[in-house]
Amino acid sequence: MQTIIGGRPGVTTGAIVLLAMILLAQGSDAPGTINCTGGKTEDFLEAFRPVFLRKALRPVRDLRKPTIVNISITLYAILGVNEKDQLLTSFLWLRMVWHNEFAEWDPLLCGGIDNISVPAEEMWIPDIFVHQFVDEDKSPHLPYLLVDHTGQVRYLKPLRVVSSCNLSIFRFPFDIQNCSLTFGSFLDSVQHIKLGLLMPTDIIEKFARNARTSQGEWELVKIESLFADETMDLVTFNIIVKRRPTLYVVNLLIPSAFLMLIDVLSFNLPPHTVDRASFKMTLLLGYTVFLLILNDLLPATASGTPLIGIYFSLCLALLVIGLLETVFVMNILHRGSSQCPGVPIWARTLVLNYLARLVCYKKVEQFEPESLNNSLTSESAFHGKNVSVQLTCVEMSQGDVQTHQFLRNISSDLHSMRRLMEGYFEQQEIAEEWLRIGLILDAVVYRMYLIFMMVYAVVLGATWGTWYNV
Predict the structure, then answer these.
(1) Whether residues 98 and 123 fall in one domain
(2) 354 within some domain
(3) Which long-range contacts (C-beta less than 8 Å, at least 24 apart) are formed by 409-414?
(4) Which one, of 354, 315, 330, lies nearest residue 444 by Cα?
(5) pLDDT tens-digit profile of 142-171?
(6) How far apart are CA 176 and CA 179, in angstroms?
(7) Which residues pair with 154 in a beta bridge?
(8) pTM of the model
(9) Does residue 132 share a domain with residue 156?
(10) Tens of pLDDT, residues 290-326
(11) Do 151 and 33 meet the contact criterion of CB atoms below 8 Å apart?
(12) Which of 182, 211, 244 is the last residue of a domain?
């Protein structure tokens, strides 16, 4: 009568007894099996001891054959990103599965034992480590691994990895970082240990998304895997993460935008009636204090300057330029017209001809002093003619010397008044010309503010769109 034992038909009872005697005689040297014919747990443990004795060598019968180690990772948390030192701190679980050719047995002959947990120190474990690891290994140690009856060994190890990463912070706080974790053997080449993936990359990424329950600063975007080397078999996982920018938008961008908006609106204050310089100086002081308080939120690194840092520097420069321009205009308005020097030719050409066209400035038609000069000239000529006529009449009629001298004094006074008025209108024209230059420069700085704010809004929107679509 034939029975089925261990899934193999056609084995008689006598053959079973003969096979058991052979295995008992050979002990653990039988290829691919562990002798545990007693069926008890003590017998199985005693038969498993020779496997422990081979822990110093790779568990293969032919050393020319490489041991295939399949690995996978589960990213549980991103503990921190150090932009200054270019470090990424993450916590993950590393799974390794390989085949031990000396740890195989038949569960039907070994009391139904399918798998067993054994001390990790008593069996061979591949020396797989992270190549980018730069700190002391503070990972917790799990003392056991799982051995299946087919010889498959499973080892689960938690890792707190502090790895080097080339961090790019130009788009901070809308930055996306790509950090690599390369797993490989410390000493063995591909001829001894060959690495593979335990599961597809999309399944690894799905497990990582389900495992990350904490909503920290960083969000997992994608996990990619590739084999990096043919001589030293390496498996590289590219972990792509992006920063959640809400904290920095609320604490950095919005307050800075409000301060710049107030400074832009301050250009609508008339400089000749309100002390606009004091207002702008207060804004400059407030912006400086704002930068000092929030300086700790900006990433500190020597590899580059983030775009938001350039934005703050330009905002500070625009505040200083606006304050200097306001001081210049106020200086023109408050000094006496007699102290106004003539406008240089280069300033008149640059500002009144080119910048005025650039900002579409149009001169307001005012009372022209030439008309008054013409009226004064005609009036003085008329008075002079009348005086001459009257003088002739007086000389011809009366010949009064005293009256003649009185009329001469009146004519001299009128000429003095004319020269005084001409000088006044000349100084007034110079003051108005300086005032026009100040107003044109004010309009130029105002448009610089608007152009800068619009350009930065477009750049910020494009950067945010790139971050959002990843």
Answers:
(1) yes
(2) no
(3) 410/383, 411/383, 411/384, 411/387, 414/380, 414/383, 414/384
(4) 354
(5) 889 999 989 899 999 999 999 988 888 888
(6) 10
(7) 97, 146
(8) 0.69
(9) yes
(10) 888 877 778 776 667 788 888 888 889 888 988 888 8
(11) no
(12) 244
